[in-house]
Structure formats: structure tokens, C-alpha cells
Amino acid sequence: MIRPLLAAILALVLAGPAAAECYADYKAKKDNPLQLHYGVARVSDGNCAPGSAAAELKPRLAADGWTLLNVLSTFGPEGLAERKANAGAWFLRY
């Protein structure tokens, strides 16, 4: 009786992090000359709100000279496929 219960609890605990994956799609720019890009990035599971995702993405992008313009949305892994083609080289780069 205890073993099936422990197995069920363990399965839920292990499945939790995978189910909590979070991604954000965003727009960024560089100046001189002006460059723009649309991208998709994985953000920490606890930062799945657009404002929190923006705070996480700003320094990542800035390290390569990009300025975050805005986070368009946050979503789970189910939204990756539909955004991959539009993000191109910027898909999961940051």
C-alpha cells in the first residue's frame, strides 16, 4: 500500500519541473546601424510572467549589445513549434 503511494508521489514530483517549462518571445534591437530581431528564449520556471521574463532577458541580451524592447508573451513548451520559424536564428539563442 505504501509503495504505490510513494511511487505516485515520486512520479508527480519528477513530472513537475518538466511541466513548468517557460519560454518568452521578445523583440530586441541594436543601434548604429539599427538592427531588430524577434526571438524566443527559455526563462526560469519562476519567471513565467512577462515582467519577470523581461528582467531575466535584459542582461542576457545586453551581454551581446542588444536592448530588449519588449516581451510579447510567455508560454509553455506547447507554444514553441508555432514560433520557431519566425524566430529563425534567434530561436532559443538567449
Characterise this structure.
The chain is an alpha+beta fold. It has one domain (21-90). It has helices spanning 2-19, 50-62, 80-87; strands at residues 22-30, 35-43, 67-75. The longest helix has 18 residues, at 2-19. The model is unreliable at 4-19 (pLDDT under 50). Keywords: Signal. It comes from Pseudogemmobacter humi. Residues 1-20 form the signal peptide.
Key features of this structure:
94 residues; alpha+beta; 3-stranded antiparallel sheet; 41% helix; globular
Helical fraction equals 40-55%
Over all CA atoms, what is the radius of gyration?
17 Å
Sheet/helix structural class:
alpha+beta
- Chain-averaged pLDDT: 86
- Give the strand content: 25-35%
Shape: globular
Distinct helical segment count:
3
- The total tally of domains equals 1
Q: Order of strands in the sheet with the most strands?
A: 2-1-3
Compressed to H and E, one letter per element, the order equals HEEHEH
Largest pleated sheet: 3 strands, antiparallel
Low-confidence stretches: 4-19
Q: Cα distance, first to last residue? A: 46 Å
- Kindly state the number of beta strands: 3
Protein name: DUF4177 domain-containing protein
Keywords: Signal
Signal peptide: 1-20
